[in-house]
Amino acid sequence: MIAIRIQTGDFDIAAEIAKLDAENTGAVATFTGKVRKEGDLTALTLEHYPQMTEREIARIAGDAQTRWPLLGVTIVHRIGRLLPGDKIVLVAVAAQHRHAAFEACAFLMDYLKTRAPFWKQEERGGKTQWVEARESDDRAAGRWRDK
Amino acid sequence: MIAIRIQTGDFDIAAEIAKLDAENTGAVATFTGKVRKEGDLTALTLEHYPQMTEREIARIAGDAQTRWPLLGVTIVHRIGRLLPGDKIVLVAVAAQHRHAAFEACAFLMDYLKTRAPFWKQEERGGKTQWVEARESDDRAAGRWRDK
Amino acid sequence: MTLLYFAWLRQKTGRGEEQLSLPADVKTVSDLVLFLKKRGGGFEDAFADLRRLRVAVNQDHSGWDTPLRDSDEVAFFPPVTGG
Amino acid sequence: MTLLYFAWLRQKTGRGEEQLSLPADVKTVSDLVLFLKKRGGGFEDAFADLRRLRVAVNQDHSGWDTPLRDSDEVAFFPPVTGG
Questions:
Q1: What are phi and psi of B8, to 5 degrees?
Q2: What is the number of other CB atoms lying within 10 angstroms of the CB of residue A8?
Q3: Partner-chain contact B52 C78, CB within 8 Å
Q4: Residue-wise pLDDT tens for chain A (147 aa)?
Q5: For the domain D2-77, what is the CATH superfamily, name and number?
Q6: A144: β partners
Q7: B96 to chain A: which residues are within 8 Å by CB?
Q8: Chain A contact for B25 (CB, 8 A cutoff)
Q9: Which of A65, B22, C9, D55 is within CB 3.0–4.6 Å of C5 for a Cys-Cys bond?
Q10: Helices (H), chain A
Q11: Helix (H) or strand (E) holding C36
Q12: Triad A32, A33, A37: Cα angle to 5°
C-alpha cells in the first residue's frame, strides 16, 4: 500500500498510478516536482543519506495514513545529477474521495521538503552551490501541526 | 495554456502532463477521478450539455488563472458509459511552485463538481438511477469564495 | 427560443429539446416555468420542485428571475454531478 | 560510533564518514560537536553556527541534547532541500 523508491533513473507517472490503483479508488492525486529551466542553471545534483531516507519517508507516509483514509501511497525520489526539465520527485495518493487524496498529497510534499534527508547542489555557469533550505517550506509543513 | 477536452475515450495521464509542461515548470499537480468498484454498481453513464460544457470549464479555468500564477491547465472529462475502474476526469496543473499547482487543482475539481454541466446515471442490478448532487460538494466549492 | 432538458428532466418531459415562440406573457424564466407547468403531465411533475432544478440561459448559470428574449437558449437540469 | 557528514559539511570536514570511539567526556550531541570543533580547521568552520545544522542519531532527526552511546550512528547535515 505504501511504495517508496529512491532511484537515479526517471519514472513513468501513468505506470506508477496504474500500480497504485485499488479497486475502490475514486480519486488519485499526484504531485511531480521538476528541475526548472531558469537563468544559467545547467544541472542539479541530489545527494541523500541512504540509511535514513526510506525510513524517514516511510514515517511521513505512515503519518499521512493515520490522518486520512488512504488506499495507496507511492513516493519516488530521484538522486544524482539531473538536468533542467527532468523530473525529481513523484508523490501519488489514491483514496476513495478527492479531499483525502489532495490533502495527503500536499502534506506528503510539505514533509518531504522539510524532513527527508536530501540535499540539492546547483550548477550555474560552471560553479556549484548548495541550495539553501527555504523558510517558506518550514511554514508549509508547520500548517499541518494543528490539524 | 488551457486545454479542455470532452471525450468518450480514455486518456493517458503521462502524455497529458508531457503536453502541459512549460520550460519553467517546477510543479505539476494532477487529479484523476475514477468510477469506484462498489457494491452492485455495473456502470456509470455521463451526459452533458455540449453547447455549455467547454465554455463553463473555460470560465472555471480562467478563474483559476486569475487566482494563482499558472503555467498550464489541462482538463479532460469523459462522457458516455463507463465501467468500474474507468477514469472519468483528469485535471492537471503546471506552475513554478507547488502550492499554486496544488490549490488550483483542488479548486478546479471543486468547481467542476458544482458548475460543469455533467450528470451521472448509475446502473445497479439492471436498474438505472440519476446520481444526486452532494451538499458536501457545494460546501467544498464554497470554501474558495472568501479566498 | 430553444428549450433544452437534461438528465431526469429530459425523461420526465419526454424530450431533450424543443423550439418555442416566446409566449406573450413570459418575461422571465419563472414565467416560462409556469407556462410549461400548465402543459400538465410530465411537465408539471418535472417542474414541481424548483429547489431541485437549475437553469442556464444562453449557456450561463442563471436565476429564475432572468429576463428572456425569443432568441434565447434556455436549459433546465438538476444540480450537476460530474467530475 | 559512526559519524556521517552530508552536503557542505562533508566538503568542509573533508570526509563523508568516520569511525570514532566515544570520547570519555562526550555524553550528548552537543559534547560531540565541541569535541569535533577542537580539531580546528574545517571542523571548526563546519560547526561554527549550529543554527545552520541538523543532526540525526540512528537515522532519527534529533536535538543537540540527545545522549550518545558508542554504538550510535550520528549524522550532521544542513537543513534538507529535497523534493
A1: -85, -30
A2: 10
A3: no
A4: 899 999 999 999 999 998 887 888 999 999 999 999 989 999 999 999 999 999 999 999 999 999 999 999 999 999 999 999 999 999 999 999 999 999 999 999 999 999 999 999 999 988 999 999 998 898 999 999 876
A5: Beta-grasp domain (3.10.20.30)
A6: none
A7: 36
A8: yes
A9: C9
A10: 13-20, 50-67, 98-115, 135-142
A11: helix C29-37
A12: 130
Phi, psi of B36 (to 5 degrees): -70, 140
Of A55, A109, A119, the CB nearest to D81: A119
Q: What does the alpha-carbon distance between residue D10 and residue A122 come to, in Å, rounded to a whole number?
A: 16
> How buried is A58 (Cβ within 10 angstroms: 0-12 exposed, 13-18 middle, 19+ buried)?
middle
Report the alpha-carbon distance of residue B74 to residue B1 in Å, rounded.
8
- Is the minimum CB–CB distance between B143 and chain A shorter than 8 Å? no
Beta bridge partners of B85: none
B29 touches B105 (CB < 8 A): yes
Cβ contact, residue pair D7, A121, below 8 Å? yes
Q: Would you state the CATH architecture of domain A2-142?
A: Alpha-Beta Complex (3.90)
Three cell numbers at D25? 567526556
Give the nearest chain A residue to D55 (CA atoms).
Answer: A117
ipTM of the prediction? 0.93
pTM passes above 0.90: yes
- Sole residue written with cell 479566498: B147
Chain A touched by B88 (CB under 8 Å): no
Contact A31 B27 (CB under 8 A): yes
Q: Where do the H-state alpha helices sit in C2-58? A: 8-13, 29-37, 41-46
